[in-house]
Amino acid sequence: MPPNNQFTAQPSPAPAGAPLQAPGNPIGSEPVAATPKRNQNSSQSTLLLSEIRDNMVIMNDGSFRAVIECESINFDLMSDREREGVEVLYQNFLNALSHPVQILVRSKRVDIGPYLEKLYNIRIRQDNMLLNVLMDDYMKFIDLLAQQYSIMDKSFYVIVPYNNTGDLTTIVQQSKGFFDKLFTKNKNAVTKIDKMTYVKAQDEINRRVESISAGLRQIGIACKQLNTVQLGELYYNFYNPDTAVSQPLQDYNKLASTYVMKGTNAPFQPGGFNG
Which of 29, 62, 119, 191 could bridge across to 50 with cysteines, CB 3.0–4.6 Å? Predict the structure, then answer.
């Protein structure tokens, strides 16, 4: 067991015939389910994350990430005095940071199908013939515009990292070995984090998120932290940019499936866990 202020992210090969330990429940000595070995040719082999839980992303190296989604402000329509005030507040926000952050701007295609369907439902309930004609022309215009041009939407995120061994040292190490980690063929790597380290990381992530959110609100930027489900949708949209438009991620409860664990010869204990 590593000290409480450290974590380990190292391979843990299982003996022959024994189930693999899943990264889905690595805290303490809680029982975990066996997960199948990742295919070397699958996209999962290139993922640098171990799991998503408690509104956080746990990376394979034992570090943590939280994501804050931000709304945009129309800087071009501001007066010179308002722009100067925003620039000063943003400068103060950056100077007040005691840890690194990542600012991500993402552009994605917008599916106008639901919008056109909504307009059609309004149109069929409309009795005014003039409004029906105008809505038909408007829907044809929107449909033609979407066929000729790609309608894009921009999203803004602030990624809040935490690493128990120190942020600056970790950034240098990760930048040196990024491509080595990306193309590593080790599929038996399991991230192990003790419970005290996890609780400490969760508290620190929450503190950093609250501090950054307060600084962004002072600038006039509305923001919110993504929860576990929203983080899963974000990663799904990133790794499936084409299918995510027409096939959005469904409810997690509908995607859940059962699993079977290999049992032991120990007798059943009421109220206990039988592996």
Answer: 191
